[in-house]
Amino acid sequence: MAEEHEDQTEQRLKDSMNGPRALKPDEQHHYLGTFRERVYLTISVGQARQHDWTLTVQSVMKHHPQTQLIINGNLPSKLTHPYQLVAIKAGARFTIKTDPFYHTRPTDLAIVIANDHAVYQSPVDVEKVAANDHQAPRSQADRQSTTGWQHLFH
Question: In what order do the strands lie in the sheet with 68-72?
Fold first, then answer.
């Protein structure tokens, strides 16, 4: 009994020094703070740099209105701002994650659309979701013509 109490005390001490143990921390870091089973859509940094996926994001948010847009805040705002505008227009929640363990390599995630409970959606990769919805991404030139605030008034 005393040994069990010592183990609990030691664990509490470790938790207070290092923070509580997280469930699947690598998965949460990859999916910008959420679990894979909660995800509807992901856009990698490389995909976000090559194409404008706002139409696909808009479609997913329309079909799943209780979602939240999660943005990798370590990326330049010119890359993520169009997705913020989509979320605002849809009346959806969004959050920007800037913790240093959210990286900006091409395979890291730039955008995640997730729910607060498990949805077990497959596929979640934006290219596959867009192909299933028959939506083509817009080119980088098209994207730059709509990244300013002026397009909100059209």
Answer: 39-44, 109-114, 68-72, 93-97
pLDDT in tens, 97-111: 999 999 999 999 999
Side-chain half-sphere of 95: how many Cα atoms within 13 Å?
A: 15
Cβ contacts of 101 within 8 Å, gap of 6 or more: 29
What's the rounded Cα separation, in Å, for the pair 115 and 22? Answer: 19
Sequential DSSP letters for 57-114: HHHHHHH-TT-EEEEETTS-HHHHHHHHHHHHHHT-EEEEE--TTS--STTSEEEEEE
Phi, psi at 129, each rounded to 5°: -65, -45
* Total-model pTM: 0.76
Task: Please give the DSSP secondary-structure letter assigned to residue 8.
Answer: H
So what's the pLDDT on residue 154?
A: 42
Cβ pair 92, 15 in contact under 8 A: no
Quick one: 55 exposed, middle or buried, by C-beta within 10 A (0-12, 13-18, 19+)? Answer: middle
CB-CB contact of 99 with 19 (8 Å): no
